[in-house]
């Protein structure tokens, strides 16, 4: 859980609730003009002038959403913020503020929370979002993180999930599947470690995958990239649960079907190598992996020329009539019905 | 946990994540003009026109903040919403939206969550706030609720904690201490029940106290009441942790001291009777009880005539120079230094 097992362990009860909150939040900076009042009153006060306000929230539970045996707390903090900011980016908005609430059991010393908050602070600085509130309390078991992300957008810039039309092109940023395979590599190393704690993992062949799992980034650059290309997506979503699942969300909410072309799905060469090593089909991973935080969106067919050679984007398919359904067209030119096999948080 | 122990128990896994969310959220109505898009996309979209946006968030953990053995789930849901709305009222704002995230262990059947969401829905309807988002996931232990409340206010209407001046009058709405004594009554009944499960509790003498504990209300009426009186508070906070603790927040952030008069503290007659029965000093309960969700605020001395006979408000003291400190002036005319003994969520 802690990077250095010998470091100091300060009990949280030594500081008291308000002492703890002051200690943990003192490094948060205010960068956004829209933040009139951040932490320290009954509520934060924000001013978005004529812009619309975007709100998204996530709840992360130790043992359900993360495993501290291979997820360093600093990375967890960073990733928790990124995952929420990604939802604002998926509306074609600009993330501006977050609230962060945590509950911790008393197995966590102050130094562990400092690491976690270092991750929060790194992400807040990287994405220039202000931490404007939160709650710090105790849990009966493990670590719980609840983040609400706030963003802004001009009304005419907002992109919903429900605007895709037949013949629109389906486009994705970056590459897919790497975060999931990074997790598989880390889980394998955990098992090796449990058998032989003196084994030193050699992870050089997996650096990209592990980074995608432990330190993902939200695509807050896409809004500007698309504006420069003079493209406004017709629908958009971020890929948190896996490509298949997200495509089906766009299809369902837009009342369209989809043809997704296997050969077009962008996959990093390292993912291909590791999938061979693990004897897993890389398309399956890209379809169902999740946690890539890339943006998936549709554009008008007439925008194809603007985007076709852009290294940030890959056209992976096109929308069709709803009655045709949503299918993967394989390299062998067979049609397979897309299913949402993405990670499902509710399991019995 | 459930009001009827014989009722149907449907496993959450039967519905799947999206089925569960759809089932639980279908009764939420949209009432606010400012809600452009609620549940169903990556983020909600809100339009506050020229008003400022207020945001507050809380995290509630079973076994830390609530005990399901005497807190019915419907009441818990209602109270969780009220506690957050109260923070928006404490800024002199109008609560408009909330997000609700829950994590539950698989000991909870669907019917339990339905009760909880019935409470959420009742409160949302009562306060006309729109549920615009959230997260539903599994926990390793118990029930976790995270709520973010959103509100709006004109810039010139917002009241912070830091605006109190020397000689300002200290005013409180409603009466204090009842919620805490309601909890004591319920805890006593729980112990009686554990000794003899066939014992039927007689709670007629405690109805007001128990209602204040199980079904508190946020004072969203105070903003309008004060506007009609042509009073704008100089500072304001809601009483969630106890009067002492909240007075000290106002004093610290406003750089003033305070004289609080014991004889002025508004206490319900039922509280006095029950305090005698429990052999507890009712002033101590009013000072440290918490969870009353009344509003505590300061007004200019010149506004005294406007408020002095108003049944909704009680002037309980006045602010003094910071160097004089914050004191309770007892009925015997002795000065006792105010201390924040309010409930502290971080305990080892």
TrEMBL record, chains A, B:
Residues that coordinate or bind substrate: 65, 291, 343
Signal peptide: none
Pfam families named among the record's database cross-references: AIRS
CDD domains the record matches: ThiL (cd02194)
Additional comment: Reaction mechanism of ThiL seems to utilize a direct, inline transfer of the gamma-phosphate of ATP to TMP rather than a phosphorylated enzyme intermediate.
Annotated Mg(2+) 3 binding sites: 42, 87, 238
Organism: Flavobacterium nakdongensis
Binding site for Mg(2+) 2: 58, 87
Keyword match Cell division: no
Catalytic function, reaction form: thiamine phosphate + ATP = thiamine diphosphate + ADP
Keyword Ubl conjugation appears in the UniProt entry: no
Annotated positions binding Mg(2+) 4: 42, 56, 87
Pathways per UniProt: Cofactor biosynthesis; thiamine diphosphate biosynthesis; thiamine diphosphate from thiamine phosphate: step 1/1
Residues annotated as domain PurM-like N-terminal: 40-152
Similarity remark: Belongs to the thiamine-monophosphate kinase family.
First-tier enzyme category under EC: transferase
Residues given in the record as ATP binding sites: 134-135, 161, 240
Keywords from the UniProt entry: ATP-binding, Kinase, Magnesium, Metal-binding, Nucleotide-binding, Thiamine biosynthesis, Transferase
InterPro entries: PurM-like_C_sf, PurM-like_N, PurM-like_N_sf, ThiL-like
Enzyme Commission numbers on file: 2.7.4.16
Protein name per Swiss-Prot or TrEMBL: Thiamine-monophosphate kinase
Sites where the protein binds Mg(2+) 5: 241
């Amino acid at each position: 859980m802690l990077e250095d097992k010998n470091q100091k362990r300060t009990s949280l009860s030594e500081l008291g609730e308000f002492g703890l909150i002051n200690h943990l939040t003192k490094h948060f900076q205010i960068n956004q003009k829209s933040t009139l009042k951040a932490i320290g009153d009954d509520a934060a006060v924000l001013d978005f002038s004529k812009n619309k306000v975007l709100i998204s929230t996530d709840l992360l539970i130790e043992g359900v959403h993360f495993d501290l045996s291979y997820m360093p707390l600093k990375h967890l903090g960073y990733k928790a913020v990124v995952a929420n900011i990604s939802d604002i980016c998926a509306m074609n908005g600009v993330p501006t503020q977050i609230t962060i609430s945590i509950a911790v059991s008393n197995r966590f010393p102050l130094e562990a929370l400092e690491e976690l908050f270092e991750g929060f602070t790194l992400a807040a600085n990287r994405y220039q979002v202000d931490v404007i509130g939160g709650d710090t309390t105790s849990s009966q078991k493990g670590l719980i993180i609840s983040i609400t992300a706030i963003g802004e957008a001009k009304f005419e810039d907002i992109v919903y999930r429900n605007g895709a039309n037949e013949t629109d092109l389906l486009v994705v940023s970056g590459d897919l599947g790497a975060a999931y395979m990074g997790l598989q590599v880390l889980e394998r190393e955990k098992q090796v470690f449990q058998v032989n704690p003196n084994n030193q993992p050699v992870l050089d062949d997996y650096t990209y995958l592990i980074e995608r799992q432990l330190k993902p980034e939200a695509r807050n650059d896409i809004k500007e990239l698309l504006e420069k290309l003079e493209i406004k997506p017709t629908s958009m979503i971020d890929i948190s649960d896996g490509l298949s699942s997200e495509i089906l969300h766009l299809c369902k909410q837009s009342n369209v079907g989809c043809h997704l072309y296997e050969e077009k799905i962008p996959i990093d060469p390292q993912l291909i190598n590791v999938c061979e090593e693990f004897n897993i089909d890389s398309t399956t991973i890209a379809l169902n992996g999740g946690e890539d935080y890339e943006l998936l969106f549709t554009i008008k067919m007439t925008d194809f020329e603007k985007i076709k050679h852009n290294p940030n984007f890959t056209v992976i398919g096109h929308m069709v009539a709803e009655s045709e359904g949503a299918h993967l067209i394989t390299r062998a030119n067979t049609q397979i019905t897309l299913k949402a096999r993405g990670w499902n948080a509710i399991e019995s």
